[in-house]
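Q: My collaborator sent me two sequences in one message, no labels, and asked for predicted structures for both. Can we handle them in order? The first one she listed is below.
A: Yes, handling them in the order given. First sequence, followed by its structure tokens:
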Amino acid sequence: MHTTQTALQGHIADFGMDTITLAGPLEAKLKAVRAAGFGQIMLAARDIVGHPQGMDAAVQAVRDSGLRVTGFQVLRDFEGLSGHLHSYKVDIAKQMILMARELGAKVLLACSSTSQHAVGDMDAVARDLRKLAMLALPHGIKVAFEGLSWGRHINEVHQAWEAVERADMPNLGLGIDSYHQFATATSLSLLDDVDPARIWLVQLSDFMWQETRTVQERIDTARHFRVFPGEGVHTQALSSLVRKLDGMGYRGDYSFEVFNDDYQQLPLPVVAERARQSALWLAEGVLRRSVPLPGAMRLRAMSP
């Protein structure tokens, strides 16, 4: 049994969960993720600052869990601002970088700005991202820049990559989220120019309808109605995305970023088990990384 469990964990070594998917206190989330066989966790700032015993206790809980920290999220609306708004965001970024360092997170996720006050000039955006990367560099933190599908000026992955290239910092790379890729119906061919060695993080989720017809529906779906890969209607598209990234040479982490109000009402082990089944489907059915396991449970095909 121990050998089988170890092998199953090996299958999903590249996959992790986001704490935002789970209800309850931080320690319970960490325990459920670990018990499901995952070896890593993506942390949200609210898990840390909202801990009833304070940030030090939260950091200790993460360390005691034995889980590797995939990354820390999320810095919002950083680029394209000026004056006091820019100074304010720099202060926020500094604090988040320090928190990431304390947690042992090597990646800080930053999302493209939705602010009405942000300018779209790509030189200004690149300048701001360069500053953010320089703030993170002394702490050994990488910055993954992700284009939100409702971003004011940058809302697709190739636009985010252009900003990363212009900023030209060794610790600045790309964050890719499958939800935003599908919400904007962005062609996979637009990933062809992306350097896979500069992709710091890939977050995966699906949802239950084919398209989001308005910006508000896109936002609401993203924040309340995501499901695990293999549970929604974009199974084929998600498989194609993961295979595309793998074919490009991406060998980094995949984390399940699943905002779902229903999952917040379910027992933690139930949700974590759904995540485990999704990870096994991706590892064995999509990436074909399985090895024969005598007597091991066969992976059930996940319904489209």
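Q: And the one she listed second?
A: Here it is, processed independently of the first:
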Amino acid sequence: MSTSHHGICPLCRQPSSRIHSYYSRKVTDLPISGKSVHLLLHARKFFCAQACCPRKIFTERWGGDLMSYQRRLNRATAQIRSIALMMGGNPGTKLTHLLGLPVSASTVLRILKQTSLPSQHTPKAVGVDDFAFKKGRIYGTILVDLEKRKPLELLQDREGKTLEDWLKAHPGIELLTRDRSFVYANAITAACPQAVQVADRWHLLKNLSEQWERLLDSQRTLIGQTALEIGQTHLKPSVQLPDLSSVIAKLEQANVGDDLPSEKRYGKYQQVKQLQEEGHSMRAIARHLAMSRRTVGKYFNQERFVPKTKTKRSNLLKFDSYLLQRWKEGEANGNTLLREIRALGYTGSYPILRNWLANYPPRANEQGLPIADRRYAYSNRSLSFAFCQAEKEWDTEKKPLLEKLLQKSPLLQQARELSLEFKSLMEQKKGECLENWCQRAGQFPAFAGFVRGIGQDFQAVQQAFSSSWSNGQTEGQVNRLKTIKRQMYGRASFTLLRLRVLADSG
């Protein structure tokens, strides 16, 4: 309950001590240890003593942290506003419940929409860039104060007229950074002809990389042939495979008995590893050795031979020559062959014999696989990045190919020299040398389009090579804007997005 003996009329501002009635008012304060806190106020109503005042009865005002009609203190509202600016409606509602200040999503958004934006000022350096509401379809424009590193304004489109109108309404801008868009360039020239324009250096390097991709498109045949040559030089020569039947014959002469199946698996393992070293694929090896690709893959991953823990106890391999002879004589009945070899000492079962005869007669051993065609696929983008880098930055895998291509193609060598010089001028801030570089690069057909584009925006590009200002801050603000936009799941309006981007900038 208030300790004051009188109230002040909100219209005539005259004090009054005549009490009309009392009522209770419940307001929310900041939580304590995650628990909600509510204050119960005993408020009074007064008679206004001025006969000429139209307000006959008024309620006492508390002032300070509690305004009229509010159900929470200003400090609690300020905390909800901060949560709304950082997280938005639904996520902010969840956080307020966890903190002990529960409100609905509608309340969070209502408080957010009541936020007043900071007063706009006219900075000396401004960054301009576009952002996507819906990628490929709807775009907007963001303007950033490069000195204070804060966003200035969001525009609902990226039309030149919209930007031009905003710049005319804020005279005094001395420098603007932008991308290579001629829409922005023309708007800035029309609104601020005295302002210095600085092109974005990242976009210049991106344009150079795109020029390289078009150049490499015309060299795909050379790249493919060179990649094949590089792959062949790293391969071992193909060798003649030993005849498997001779291996089995030696095992039979050695009378290895029950260990014979493991020895056969070891022979297959050696053949697979030998072909693997020569660069052949699993599919080719499986087809060549008549093996399952799963088995070949298992051998590929094994560094050493792993014998089976429980070998099959069968002596069928000892009767292979007899079975082959009977097969050539025309006997293909499994039961008949089973009775004959059992009379000779076979101790195994019929399923083992049936699986053995499934691929009978054995294929004649092939003379060996041809040399593997080991050719790596390189994208134009990855190669364009590499050609614009110093040799010490090259990837070890790509380095032989890049060196071979430069030896074979004077065109690529000349383009690389021009690209490295372009990057060096940019890094060393030698804008005065850009014109000379353009004259030499313009005589090179592969870079003619790139040089023509620089000539159309030469002053801004030269400033990019000389000035310390860049559009990097603007790109960072665009990334932040994307994060805020995705938190809102596309359901919020442009007004709400603008509030969150601009009001939460400090």
